[in-house]
Amino acid sequence: MQKSIERIAGDSDGVSYEFPVLRLAGADKTAPSAYLQAALHAGELPGVVAIDALMPMLNKAEAEGRIRGNITIVPWANPIGRAQYHFGEHQGRFHLGTRTNFNRGFPLLAAPDARLLPDATFGGADQRLKSRLVQLSLGHDIVLDLHCDDEGLAYLYVHTSLWPGMADCAAAMGVDAVVLWSEDTDGTFEGASIMPYQNASADVAKFDRRVATTVEYRGILDVNGALAKSDAEGLYRLLVARGVISDTALPAPGPFKGVAAPLENIDMMPAPRGGAVLYDVKPGDRVTRGARLATIVHAPGEADGRTEVFAPQDGIILTRRSRRIIRSGEDLLKLVGDRKSADARSGTLED
């Protein structure tokens, strides 16, 4: 394993940011290659500890000559967000200087060619970081962007062009659900990883071996050794299943048994009032239309001081908020419905 340090110039003299890049060289130039990154939203740590648990497996495979394809790993993908604190609270989702989500504004290239990247020299540090992450990932057959939600099941975002071809990956990783999407107008990292191949020739697109996904590893507090080990084993199974690593002792993944639904089926449930949230459901619960999902206490102790929120359709609770105070209009949860939502959203579901 080789380690290098990437440096991103800051927006003023004397300021710069660094992040490590780990590389394992494959012995077979024809084998699929893989790129993994974690903590693009810098406070989301389940992917970071999963990579930490994965590295001993990869180092062992390398020592035994079983690494077939090149592997590039960025365990801490966002040194800018990692350094952001406001009144003692970490702020890793948005760049404080631009108020832009760190997983928005990636360049969506017309083809998988780094020469098409815009010149970020005179952009902000966050744009320089995004450009460099795209450069590092471009050309890999497998691109995994490891995130987490507030509280939730383990699930993947997958472009419709890669499904059901990626069902083996979902099964290998042991996720509970897959959300299928087709449009990216906001420039997510996943979009930057798959959109350049949409109009490419078949010999360049290679959809039969391509993997690009945002991995949501449950909730932001699900950071512990047991889950990290389980997630690392899932990542390893994926790399073996897709031929990046050779391991004859590992069986092929079985069929994916989780939920797969289009993004348009998700109800986000905007809160009708602001206040304290009392949830009746948790991630993984199956609900029917009309079931009470939550109660918002907006005027404690007063008559009519509670507002109930009900399920608009049958479905599975995918996520809910980790904090229990909410403003009017903020989304309460993600309900993966059995049919298209009456409030269907295109593009990204939230800021």
From TrEMBL:
<dbReference type="Pfam" id="PF24827">
    <property type="entry name" value="AstE_AspA_cat"/>
</dbReference>
<keyword id="KW-0479">Metal-binding</keyword>
<dbReference type="InterPro" id="IPR055438">
    <property type="entry name" value="AstE_AspA_cat"/>
</dbReference>
<feature type="domain" description="Succinylglutamate desuccinylase/Aspartoacylase catalytic">
    <location>
        <begin position="32"/>
        <end position="193"/>
    </location>
</feature>
<dbReference type="GO" id="GO:0046872">
    <property type="term" value="F:metal ion binding"/>
</dbReference>
<protein>
    <submittedName>
        <fullName>Putative deacylase</fullName>
    </submittedName>
</protein>
<keyword id="KW-0378">Hydrolase</keyword>
<dbReference type="InterPro" id="IPR053138">
    <property type="entry name" value="N-alpha-Ac-DABA_deacetylase"/>
</dbReference>
<dbReference type="GO" id="GO:0016788">
    <property type="term" value="F:hydrolase activity, acting on ester bonds"/>
</dbReference>
<keyword id="KW-0862">Zinc</keyword>
